[in-house]
Amino acid sequence: MASQLGSNETKRLTARDWHPVVPALIFVLATYAFNLGLNTALFRLQPVLPGVPQRAIVAAPLTLLGAGALLGISGIAMTYSLSLFVHAAAESTGHTTSATSSAVGVGQFARVAGVVVGGGIATALGFALLVVPGFVVLAHIPFVLVAVVLENQSIEQAIKIGHARVRTDPVPVAAVTLLAALGLAAVTAVGVYTSLVPPAIEVGVGAAGTAVVLLVGVYAFTGLYRRGARRHGGI
Questions:
Q1: Which regions in the chain score pLDDT beneath 70?
Q2: pTM
Q3: 16 exposed, middle or buried (CB, 10 Å; 0-12, 13-18, 19+)?
Q4: Tens digits of residue pLDDT in 94-143
Q5: DSSP line for 189-206
Q6: Are 40 and 52 in contact (CB under 8 A)?
Q7: Is 105 left (phi over 0), alpha (psi -120 to 50) or beta?
Q8: Cα(78)–Cα(18) distance, integer angstroms
Q9: Taking the domains of the chain in order of start, what are their residue ranges?
Q10: What is the sign of the dihedral through the CA atoms of 19, 23, 154 and 134?
């Protein structure tokens, strides 16, 4: 009986520890640290790179090497916490199975990082050059991320899965993609007004706003992914 109670308590603690809010908070803090590191690096480069904007920015008392280290560490924290958030979001739906594990191996982590970095660049270029390609990329990348995180798929296979999910639920996917794009646009618009406030507030609002929009979007896409997986007899 005591053993059973201990087992139940362990399960409750585990479920609470992996609540989506926990990795979400870590992701927000890591995003702020990443922005701080980036601003510090730009600040240190102002004297030697004339192309860098000469304006007041928030900078930590770090050297250029220290800023680079902060960028690397916070980038790793962002990627790992985002992976944990995907697992927690999937668990919160109540449809977890023993096939999924919150452990992230080195190879899997590298693929997640590749999806995040490559997807971010592709999305930005898509919106900058032509708006429609940006929406297309934004509709596929979250599914690719979830497939890599939950099923440990290769990037090639994850892209195929993502394309299948988009074709299966085009209307919900389009709606979530549009809302995510509008959310990012709103954060950018708010950034125009926060340029009138102290730089520390501007960086904090921008980092937190961007992180929250991304997390909400990933949560919604994770739900769509799991619904499609159950429909096809998957996880």
A1: 1-18, 50-57, 93-103, 194-195, 228-235
A2: 0.80
A3: exposed
A4: 555 444 555 677 888 999 999 999 988 998 888 888 778 888 998 999 99
A5: HHHHHHTTS-HHHHHHHH
A6: no
A7: beta
A8: 16
A9: 2-231
A10: positive
